[in-house]
Write a structure and sequence with these properties.
It is a single chain. The chain has a five-stranded parallel sheet with strand order 2-1-3-6-7, with helices on both faces. The protein has helices at residues 10-23, 36-45, 64-69, 84-93, 104-119, 128-135, 186-192, 242-250; strands spanning 2-6, 28-33, 51-55, 57-58, 61-62, 76-80, 97-99, 143-148, 151-156, 160-166, 169-174, 179-182, 198-200, 205-208, 212-218, 222-227, 235-237. The model has no long low-confidence stretch (mean pLDDT 85). By secondary structure, the chain is of the alpha/beta class. It has eight helices and 17 strands.
């Protein structure tokens, strides 16, 4: 199992290699590369590795330039400090990312995800062109605009506990229990809000991870989610979405 690490900070590269060695001592880091140019040359002259860990922001540019220059077919796990664009892209494509500083447990999950991908022979590795297209998308908004008669009020997304659809009305309930009527549909909000923070529970609810108090097993292998603020109807996760919900919740 050959691994390439693309990282321009020597200390960060060393720490990542040490973590990899502790988790997968049989893996070999065949190269630690520090720049776009160096990486392009190396990949052109050597057999493809099995897996690449790549920092996004290198000293000479974004590492995506590597993948638009060289035909890289192996999976890539990117490392980033705070790039929410990248986070959304990888969530959509099934390729993992690691936030710096990299934690051992988070790295272990990323490796497991890679191993499951390989074991399942999943062909859906992302194209980097698609990745670049997704990176150009706007980030999730920090506020939603609430229209009421002649006034427009910004509603902070960070304060929203859940969004509810009931009798043709979509509303957001905040941590203070206040309810605001929104103009968007639930489908539109699902695409707009960060999937890392919000989960589409069913046709009636989008819930924030901080709103989840606990889950209880329900009839037919469904799950009832208890929120920190009471709702007018139960939040039920279907049997088909229970695993997706639990995976989201533990991330």
């Amino acid at each position: 199992m050959n691994v390439v690490v693309i990282e321009d900070e020597l200390l960060a590269a060393k720490e990542l290699c040490n973590l990899l060695a502790s988790l997968r001592p049989n893996w070999t880091v065949v190269a630690t590369l520090q720049s776009i140019d160096e990486t392009v040359v190396w990949l052109a002259q050597h057999p493809a590795p099995d897996l690449i860990f790549s920092d996004i922001q290198l000293a000479d540019g974004l590492s995506f330039q590597v993948f638009s220059t060289v035909d890289v077919t192996c999976p890539v796990i990117f490392c980033t400090a705070f790039d929410q664009y990248a986070i959304r892209a990888f969530e959509a494509n099934g390729i993992d990312y690691l936030l710096k500083p990299i934690e051992l447990n988070r790295l272990a999950l990323a490796i497991k995800k890679y191993e499951n991908l390989i074991a399942s022979n999943t062909p859906a590795l992302p194209t980097f062109q698609r990745l670049l297209e997704q990176l150009s998308r706007p980030a999730s908004p920090t506020s939603l605009l609430v229209y009421h008669r002649d006034s427009i009020t910004p509603l902070s997304v960070s304060g929203i506990l859940f969004v509810h659809y009931e009798e043709g009305v979509v509303s957001a309930t905040t941590v203070t229990g206040q309810r605001y009527v929104l103009s968007q549909t639930l489908d539109e909000l699902e695409k707009l809000l960060s999937p890392h923070l919000f989960f589409r529970a069913n046709r009636q609810f989008i819930i924030h991870r901080q709103s989840v108090q606990k889950g209880e097993r329900y009839f037919g292998r469904k799950l009832i989610v208890k929120l920190t603020i009471p709702t007018t109807e139960p939040v039920i996760i279907s049997k088909a979405k229970v695993s997706e919900f639990l995976n989201w919740l533990q991330q």
